[in-house]
Amino acid sequence: MAGPVAVVTDSTAYLPAAVSADLGVTVVPLQVVVGGISRPENTDSGTDITFDAHDVVAALRANKTVTTSRPSPQVFVDTYRRLQARGFSAVVSVHLSGDISGTVEAARLAASEVKGDGFTVEVVDSRSLGMGLGFGVQAAVTAVTAGAAVDEVARAAARRSLNSSIYIYVDTLEFLRRGGRIGAATAWVGSALTIKPVLALADGRLEPLERVRTTQRALTRLVELSVAEATGEGATTRIAVHHLSAPERADEVAGRLREHLPAIGEIPVTEVGPVIGAHVGPGAVGVVVARDLDPLGD
Fold it and tell me: In the CATH hierarchy, which fold is given to the domain comprising 5-162?
Protein backbone atom coordinates (compact mmCIF):
# COMPACT_ATOMS: atom_id res chain seq x y z
CA MET A 1 0.00 0.00 0.00
CA ALA A 2 1.87 3.05 -1.26
CA GLY A 3 1.49 6.08 0.99
CA PRO A 4 3.12 8.11 3.73
CA VAL A 5 2.45 5.64 6.58
CA ALA A 6 3.38 1.95 6.55
CA VAL A 7 1.98 -0.62 8.99
CA VAL A 8 4.17 -3.31 10.55
CA THR A 9 3.17 -6.11 12.89
CA ASP A 10 4.54 -9.45 14.06
CA SER A 11 3.66 -13.03 13.27
CA THR A 12 1.50 -13.51 16.39
CA ALA A 13 -1.29 -11.45 14.79
CA TYR A 14 -1.89 -14.63 12.76
CA LEU A 15 -3.14 -12.72 9.76
CA PRO A 16 -3.11 -15.05 6.73
CA ALA A 17 -0.36 -14.11 4.27
CA ALA A 18 -2.92 -13.22 1.62
CA VAL A 19 -4.70 -10.87 4.03
CA SER A 20 -1.43 -9.22 5.07
CA ALA A 21 -0.55 -8.73 1.42
CA ASP A 22 -3.97 -7.27 0.60
CA LEU A 23 -3.69 -4.89 3.55
CA GLY A 24 -0.11 -3.94 2.67
CA VAL A 25 1.13 -4.99 6.12
CA THR A 26 4.73 -6.03 6.75
CA VAL A 27 4.96 -9.01 9.13
CA VAL A 28 8.07 -9.63 11.25
CA PRO A 29 8.28 -13.23 12.53
CA LEU A 30 9.14 -14.25 16.07
CA GLN A 31 11.54 -17.14 16.59
CA VAL A 32 10.73 -20.68 17.70
CA VAL A 33 13.34 -23.06 19.13
CA VAL A 34 12.61 -26.79 18.96
CA GLY A 35 15.23 -29.22 20.18
CA GLY A 36 17.87 -26.50 20.04
CA ILE A 37 17.05 -25.53 16.44
CA SER A 38 15.86 -21.94 15.97
CA ARG A 39 13.64 -20.96 13.05
CA PRO A 40 11.17 -18.16 12.31
CA GLU A 41 7.51 -18.68 13.07
CA ASN A 42 5.70 -19.62 9.88
CA THR A 43 4.01 -16.61 8.28
CA ASP A 44 3.02 -18.50 5.10
CA SER A 45 5.55 -16.46 3.16
CA GLY A 46 7.22 -19.47 1.60
CA THR A 47 10.57 -17.68 1.73
CA ASP A 48 12.13 -19.21 4.83
CA ILE A 49 12.58 -22.57 6.50
CA THR A 50 10.16 -22.17 9.37
CA PHE A 51 8.42 -23.97 12.18
CA ASP A 52 4.65 -24.20 11.93
CA ALA A 53 1.92 -25.23 14.37
CA HIS A 54 2.15 -28.89 13.37
CA ASP A 55 5.88 -28.96 14.16
CA VAL A 56 5.29 -27.55 17.61
CA VAL A 57 2.35 -29.82 18.41
CA ALA A 58 4.46 -32.86 17.47
CA ALA A 59 7.35 -31.60 19.61
CA LEU A 60 5.16 -30.89 22.63
CA ARG A 61 3.51 -34.29 22.43
CA ALA A 62 6.96 -35.89 22.23
CA ASN A 63 8.00 -33.94 25.36
CA LYS A 64 10.64 -32.00 23.44
CA THR A 65 11.69 -28.60 24.73
CA VAL A 66 10.05 -25.75 22.82
CA THR A 67 10.90 -22.12 23.51
CA THR A 68 10.22 -18.83 21.77
CA SER A 69 12.08 -15.55 21.40
CA ARG A 70 11.51 -12.06 20.09
CA PRO A 71 12.96 -10.75 16.83
CA SER A 72 16.21 -8.89 17.35
CA PRO A 73 16.16 -5.07 17.24
CA GLN A 74 18.31 -5.30 14.09
CA VAL A 75 15.53 -7.18 12.30
CA PHE A 76 13.23 -4.25 12.99
CA VAL A 77 15.89 -1.72 11.98
CA ASP A 78 16.26 -3.50 8.65
CA THR A 79 12.49 -3.66 8.20
CA TYR A 80 11.99 0.03 8.91
CA ARG A 81 14.89 1.02 6.64
CA ARG A 82 13.44 -1.00 3.76
CA LEU A 83 10.11 0.80 4.15
CA GLN A 84 11.90 4.16 4.27
CA ALA A 85 13.73 3.24 1.06
CA ARG A 86 10.35 2.49 -0.55
CA GLY A 87 9.27 6.06 0.10
CA PHE A 88 7.33 5.84 3.36
CA SER A 89 7.86 8.75 5.72
CA ALA A 90 6.43 7.01 8.79
CA VAL A 91 5.77 3.56 10.23
CA VAL A 92 3.23 2.37 12.79
CA SER A 93 4.55 -0.85 14.30
CA VAL A 94 1.90 -2.82 16.26
CA HIS A 95 2.91 -5.81 18.39
CA LEU A 96 1.78 -8.37 20.93
CA SER A 97 1.60 -7.51 24.60
CA GLY A 98 4.86 -6.42 26.17
CA ASP A 99 3.97 -8.49 29.25
CA ILE A 100 4.03 -11.64 27.11
CA SER A 101 7.00 -10.94 24.83
CA GLY A 102 9.92 -8.55 24.45
CA THR A 103 8.97 -7.97 20.81
CA VAL A 104 7.55 -4.50 21.40
CA GLU A 105 10.72 -3.48 23.29
CA ALA A 106 12.88 -4.67 20.38
CA ALA A 107 10.73 -2.56 18.06
CA ARG A 108 11.14 0.48 20.30
CA LEU A 109 14.92 0.10 20.37
CA ALA A 110 14.94 -0.08 16.59
CA ALA A 111 12.60 2.90 16.29
CA SER A 112 14.93 5.06 18.36
CA GLU A 113 17.79 4.17 16.01
CA VAL A 114 16.05 4.93 12.71
CA LYS A 115 14.08 8.04 13.63
CA GLY A 116 15.19 11.32 12.12
CA ASP A 117 15.59 13.17 8.83
CA GLY A 118 11.84 13.29 8.28
CA PHE A 119 11.28 9.61 9.13
CA THR A 120 9.38 8.47 12.23
CA VAL A 121 8.27 5.20 13.78
CA GLU A 122 5.41 4.90 16.26
CA VAL A 123 5.45 1.62 18.21
CA VAL A 124 2.17 0.37 19.70
CA ASP A 125 1.94 -2.20 22.48
CA SER A 126 -1.41 -3.79 21.65
CA ARG A 127 -1.65 -5.38 25.11
CA SER A 128 -3.15 -8.27 23.19
CA LEU A 129 -2.31 -11.23 20.94
CA GLY A 130 -3.75 -13.24 18.07
CA MET A 131 -6.64 -11.47 16.40
CA GLY A 132 -6.82 -9.09 19.35
CA LEU A 133 -3.63 -7.77 17.78
CA GLY A 134 -4.82 -8.52 14.25
CA PHE A 135 -7.97 -6.42 14.62
CA GLY A 136 -5.77 -3.54 15.79
CA VAL A 137 -3.61 -3.92 12.71
CA GLN A 138 -6.69 -3.84 10.50
CA ALA A 139 -7.85 -0.66 12.24
CA ALA A 140 -4.46 0.92 11.55
CA VAL A 141 -4.74 0.09 7.85
CA THR A 142 -8.26 1.55 7.76
CA ALA A 143 -6.91 4.76 9.28
CA VAL A 144 -4.07 4.91 6.74
CA THR A 145 -6.58 4.47 3.91
CA ALA A 146 -8.62 7.33 5.35
CA GLY A 147 -5.55 9.58 5.17
CA ALA A 148 -4.88 9.74 8.90
CA ALA A 149 -1.62 11.12 10.26
CA VAL A 150 0.87 8.74 11.87
CA ASP A 151 -0.22 9.50 15.44
CA GLU A 152 -3.86 8.92 14.50
CA VAL A 153 -2.97 5.61 12.88
CA ALA A 154 -1.17 4.51 16.05
CA ARG A 155 -4.14 5.58 18.16
CA ALA A 156 -6.53 3.64 15.93
CA ALA A 157 -4.51 0.45 16.38
CA ALA A 158 -4.27 0.87 20.14
CA ARG A 159 -7.94 1.76 20.50
CA ARG A 160 -9.14 -1.34 18.68
CA SER A 161 -6.74 -3.74 20.41
CA LEU A 162 -7.25 -2.32 23.88
CA ASN A 163 -11.00 -2.73 23.44
CA SER A 164 -10.69 -6.42 22.61
CA SER A 165 -11.35 -9.22 25.10
CA ILE A 166 -9.81 -12.69 24.90
CA TYR A 167 -10.98 -15.83 26.65
CA ILE A 168 -8.89 -19.01 26.43
CA TYR A 169 -9.43 -22.64 27.38
CA VAL A 170 -6.36 -24.86 27.79
CA ASP A 171 -6.24 -28.60 28.36
CA THR A 172 -3.39 -28.18 30.82
CA LEU A 173 -1.48 -25.37 32.49
CA GLU A 174 1.80 -27.22 32.06
CA PHE A 175 2.92 -25.46 28.90
CA LEU A 176 2.18 -22.02 30.32
CA ARG A 177 4.11 -23.01 33.44
CA ARG A 178 7.12 -24.11 31.40
CA GLY A 179 7.13 -20.85 29.48
CA GLY A 180 6.75 -18.67 32.57
CA ARG A 181 3.46 -17.17 31.31
CA ILE A 182 1.21 -18.70 33.92
CA GLY A 183 0.99 -15.66 36.23
CA ALA A 184 -1.57 -15.91 39.00
CA ALA A 185 -2.74 -19.31 37.76
CA THR A 186 0.31 -20.85 39.44
CA ALA A 187 -1.93 -21.69 42.39
CA TRP A 188 -3.99 -23.95 40.12
CA VAL A 189 -1.13 -26.17 38.99
CA GLY A 190 -1.48 -28.69 41.81
CA SER A 191 -5.05 -29.48 40.78
CA ALA A 192 -4.39 -29.31 37.03
CA LEU A 193 -5.44 -32.92 36.49
CA THR A 194 -8.86 -32.35 38.00
CA ILE A 195 -9.78 -28.98 36.50
CA LYS A 196 -10.21 -27.41 33.09
CA PRO A 197 -8.83 -23.85 33.22
CA VAL A 198 -10.46 -20.86 31.54
CA LEU A 199 -8.14 -17.87 31.28
CA ALA A 200 -8.60 -14.27 30.19
CA LEU A 201 -6.21 -11.68 28.86
CA ALA A 202 -6.30 -8.83 31.38
CA ASP A 203 -4.20 -5.71 30.79
CA GLY A 204 -1.86 -7.63 28.54
CA ARG A 205 -1.38 -10.61 30.87
CA LEU A 206 -2.96 -14.05 30.95
CA GLU A 207 -4.92 -14.37 34.19
CA PRO A 208 -6.97 -17.22 35.67
CA LEU A 209 -10.69 -16.71 35.31
CA GLU A 210 -12.55 -19.91 36.17
CA ARG A 211 -11.98 -23.59 36.91
CA VAL A 212 -14.53 -26.07 35.60
CA ARG A 213 -14.67 -29.85 35.65
CA THR A 214 -15.07 -30.82 32.01
CA THR A 215 -13.90 -29.67 28.61
CA GLN A 216 -17.48 -29.29 27.42
CA ARG A 217 -18.30 -27.02 30.33
CA ALA A 218 -15.17 -24.96 29.60
CA LEU A 219 -16.23 -24.49 25.97
CA THR A 220 -19.70 -23.49 27.13
CA ARG A 221 -18.14 -20.86 29.39
CA LEU A 222 -16.12 -19.52 26.45
CA VAL A 223 -19.36 -19.05 24.54
CA GLU A 224 -21.20 -17.53 27.50
CA LEU A 225 -18.42 -15.09 28.33
CA SER A 226 -18.01 -14.05 24.69
CA VAL A 227 -21.73 -13.55 24.14
CA ALA A 228 -21.97 -11.45 27.30
CA GLU A 229 -19.07 -9.31 26.10
CA ALA A 230 -20.50 -8.95 22.60
CA THR A 231 -23.93 -7.91 23.86
CA GLY A 232 -22.74 -5.66 26.67
CA GLU A 233 -22.40 -1.89 26.66
CA GLY A 234 -20.86 -0.69 23.39
CA ALA A 235 -21.43 -2.38 20.06
CA THR A 236 -19.21 -5.22 18.88
CA THR A 237 -19.10 -6.65 15.40
CA ARG A 238 -15.84 -8.58 15.32
CA ILE A 239 -15.24 -12.03 16.77
CA ALA A 240 -12.55 -14.57 15.95
CA VAL A 241 -11.91 -18.08 17.23
CA HIS A 242 -8.42 -19.56 17.60
CA HIS A 243 -7.27 -23.07 18.43
CA LEU A 244 -4.23 -25.32 18.46
CA SER A 245 -4.79 -28.79 17.05
CA ALA A 246 -8.46 -28.65 18.05
CA PRO A 247 -10.44 -27.74 14.91
CA GLU A 248 -13.59 -29.59 15.96
CA ARG A 249 -13.74 -27.76 19.30
CA ALA A 250 -13.12 -24.42 17.60
CA ASP A 251 -15.80 -25.06 14.97
CA GLU A 252 -18.25 -26.00 17.71
CA VAL A 253 -17.56 -22.78 19.61
CA ALA A 254 -17.83 -20.67 16.44
CA GLY A 255 -21.10 -22.36 15.51
CA ARG A 256 -22.62 -21.72 18.91
CA LEU A 257 -21.48 -18.09 18.78
CA ARG A 258 -23.16 -17.67 15.39
CA GLU A 259 -26.39 -19.05 16.84
CA HIS A 260 -26.33 -16.58 19.74
CA LEU A 261 -25.04 -13.63 17.69
CA PRO A 262 -26.49 -13.90 14.17
CA ALA A 263 -25.86 -10.21 13.47
CA ILE A 264 -22.10 -10.55 14.02
CA GLY A 265 -21.45 -11.89 10.54
CA GLU A 266 -18.36 -13.87 9.68
CA ILE A 267 -16.48 -15.50 12.57
CA PRO A 268 -13.11 -16.68 11.28
CA VAL A 269 -11.64 -19.82 12.81
CA THR A 270 -7.84 -20.04 12.62
CA GLU A 271 -5.12 -22.12 14.16
CA VAL A 272 -2.57 -20.19 16.17
CA GLY A 273 1.06 -20.44 15.16
CA PRO A 274 3.91 -22.07 17.05
CA VAL A 275 4.78 -19.08 19.26
CA ILE A 276 1.43 -18.86 21.04
CA GLY A 277 0.88 -22.58 20.54
CA ALA A 278 4.04 -23.45 22.44
CA HIS A 279 2.56 -21.79 25.54
CA VAL A 280 -1.11 -22.80 25.40
CA GLY A 281 -0.52 -26.36 24.17
CA PRO A 282 -2.56 -28.73 21.98
CA GLY A 283 -6.31 -28.64 22.54
CA ALA A 284 -6.48 -24.94 23.40
CA VAL A 285 -9.37 -22.82 22.14
CA GLY A 286 -9.67 -19.05 22.40
CA VAL A 287 -12.23 -16.40 21.48
CA VAL A 288 -11.41 -12.79 20.64
CA VAL A 289 -14.19 -10.20 20.94
CA ALA A 290 -13.39 -6.75 19.56
CA ARG A 291 -15.51 -3.71 20.23
CA ASP A 292 -16.43 -1.91 17.02
CA LEU A 293 -15.45 1.59 18.10
CA ASP A 294 -14.60 4.52 15.85
CA PRO A 295 -10.86 3.93 15.42
CA LEU A 296 -10.17 7.66 15.27
CA GLY A 297 -12.47 8.60 18.12
CA ASP A 298 -11.42 9.97 21.49
Answer: Rossmann fold (3.40.50)
